[in-house]
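Subject: mismatched residue count in predicted assembly?

I count 65 residues in my input, but I want to confirm that the predicted structure covers every chain. Input:
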Amino acid sequence: MPVVKADLGACQGYANCVVGASDYFDIDDDGLVVLLRVDVPEDDRKRVEEAARSCPVSALMVVDE
Ligand code: SF4
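Triage response: the counts match. Full output below for your records.
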């Protein structure tokens, strides 16, 4: 199953990802993305990939494991 990964060193807290998929992404008190879940069922893949692509600093990836 695809999984979503976050590069916390790159994340700048823009929160575009939260807007795109609030069931997968949140922002913590330090302004860094929090993954609420990592497994991405195929039904969610397009939506989560679009949310990942909306990240201005490319901190998110959906990869096949
Ligand atoms: S859109 Fe990118 S920079 Fe913004 S919170 Fe999400 S992962 Fe971080």
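Helices lie at 16-20, 42-53. Marking this ticket as 'not a bug'.
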